[in-house]
């Protein structure tokens, strides 16, 4: 039997803000009913950009219900910028603590909020500000847990075993196929704490992929814009971009750093990178991501 705080029991027995917001500005869904936990969070903003109404629907344990309930109370009245600062540790602390084995419930609430914010910016046709997110590549498919969620949990809580990661995020608690990947993330975090820096990125040769003089000049313009403007903006959020090749109006690029693992990468490429290239270089360019 878990040792739940009075606050957890209160929000479990009398959850706040249950349901679906009418005419929402953003809806996020995380988890999977097939694996035991699922959460949908919806919000609506007021005229000043603050969260006027927020509600949740969840299928899960008492900790999941309580975490979702307290989260809606915590972010109501905040801007998206302010709401994005709420961490899973804040959720657990507000509940008076959660059993170590139930910390993944607070993580799920944070992920649902991020998914709802991504949905909001997609509805507006705008790139999602990367600093609002902790996007990541999916590592645990049983419980839909991303690489960055695992990495954040390891760094913030000094986790040093796969079992610890499972307790905090639920990753690895299903089939176990991701245990090897989780162990690698833990080791990467250990090296990051030791101050080991990643290697340098390989630079693009502007002549490669350019079939004629006009193409070579075009590639130089693309490279200049990427280096002097677009890369600078992405590096502010921990990411970067490199030109791979150009061919017949198609600009093949590779996202690196935080951008490589960002759930909103497709929006960044189309709504920012492609639009900037069309505005400043040529209006018929198409940006295509290379992921290997």
Care to describe what's here?
It is built from ten helices and eight strands. By secondary structure, the chain is α+β, with helices and mostly antiparallel strands. The protein has three domains: 1-128, Alpha-Beta Complex (Sufe protein. Chain: A), CATH 3.90.1010.10; 136-197, BFD-like [2Fe-2S]-binding domain (Arc Repressor Mutant, subunit A, Orthogonal Bundle); 213-289, GMP Synthetase, Chain A, domain 3 (2-Layer Sandwich), CATH 3.30.300.130. The strands form three sheets. The chain has a three-stranded antiparallel sheet with strand order 1-2-3. It has a three-stranded mixed sheet with strand order 6-7-8. It has a two-stranded antiparallel sheet with strand order 4-5. A hairpin with a 2-residue loop joins strand 6 (239-247) and strand 7.
Supply database-style keywords.
alpha+beta; 10 helices; 292 residues; Sufe protein. Chain: A; 3 domains; 3-stranded mixed beta sheet; single chain; GMP Synthetase, Chain A, domain 3; 3-stranded antiparallel beta sheet; Arc Repressor Mutant, subunit A
CATH class of the largest domain: Alpha Beta
* Structural classification: alpha+beta
- Rg for CA atoms: 21 Å
Q: Give the overall silhouette.
A: globular
In the residues, how many domains can be counted? Answer: 3
Helix content: 40-55%
Number of helices: 10
Tally of strands: 8
Average pLDDT works out at 82
Largest sheet: 3 strands, antiparallel
Gap from first CA to last CA: 47 Å
**Proper CATH architecture of the largest domain:** Alpha-Beta Complex
Kindly report the CATH topology of the largest domain: Sufe protein. Chain: A
Spatial strand sequence of the major β-sheet: 1-2-3
Query: Strand percentage, roughly?
Result: 15-25%
